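lol ok so funny story. i was supposed to be doing the assay writeup but got distracted and ended up predicting the structure for this chain instead. priorities right. anyway since i did it might as well share w the group, maybe its usefull for someone
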Amino acid sequence: MVRTVPLGLLVVDSLLLGLALSQELQADGKLVKLETYKGSLEESAQEAVIIFDEGDGEKSAVEDLILKVSARGDTKSFGWVVPFPREPKAAKEDAKLFEELFNYVEARHEQLRANLSGGMATGKGEEGAGGVEVLSRQTVGTFDVAVVREKEAGALNQWLEKEGFQTLAGADDILGFYRDKGYVFACVKVTDAALSADKPVDLHPLRFTFETGGRDGIYYPVRMTGLQEEPFDINLYVFYRFWLNDSLNKFGYSHRGFMLNYRDWDTSKCVANGGKAYSAPKHDQFLKDFADKIPTVTRLLQKLHPGDKYYLTNIQMEGAKPADVRVWSDDLWLFPYYTNKKFVPYDARPGGVAARAWEN
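and the output, tada:
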């Protein structure tokens, strides 16, 4: 049986992506092991690229979430469980995205240290056993992805067991949280990953494209990682039309324990608040000297969002304790940097998709 790992990074009405296999793997969700596997498999790091296009009140925001998992274990088969607010489409992406973004951020840090730049700018689903509806199945690279919806308590674990996954023990509160919100589970199986007991192995990234069901909230699943035992790090590269709220008010990411590592800025040659043309960096005043560092990133934006402009923000959390994350009232939601400190983000308002985190 495959060991299942919850990923609390990271889709149908609200989607929970689940990857469960012979071990327990966790990344933006929960990694799980096969039923016969007796070793350990823990997620040591979560990395994600997020591309976010906000909604307008009538049309839902759309998010591309590209997940990379670094896990440690001594088994060749494992599973992954990740939650999302809507059903996603899954696709394989190139792991070079993360290498390029890391190198780009480091190069920008060198530039800042050298004071070379100006100042900052302001098919149809089938019914599964035990109250689980299978919404879709597809093969993506080395992953088999099934998106399911749990209709009643206990049904997901029954389905996981039937499909050869290890069940998620002691997870009733977390699963109930997502079931009450209408989220779905994407269950991902990995069968040919050669994992080492001594060295983390990076798996090819998966991209999930989904509607958030909201307007201005950028979603990252993290609560399910609270089911694992070991601390973990999170590294997020977020492409959004503007800056993100850091500590402007209580809706900033710093109040969730994240720290800013890097974000793009405007120079005197840039259009103020105009974003950066990552799909054509050689023609962008801010990016042109760094275009050769991000060819894979450029191809991704050309493929998904040609002509759109974004600011890149890199935020990180180190040594997150699962027990602390598990008691969060909701997953991680990031919001725009609204200059009015009293402005409440649309999705954080009563009835919004992110309102549960700010019920008062």
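The longest helix spans residues 96-113. Residues 104 and 247 are 25 Å apart (CA to CA).
back to the writeup now i swear
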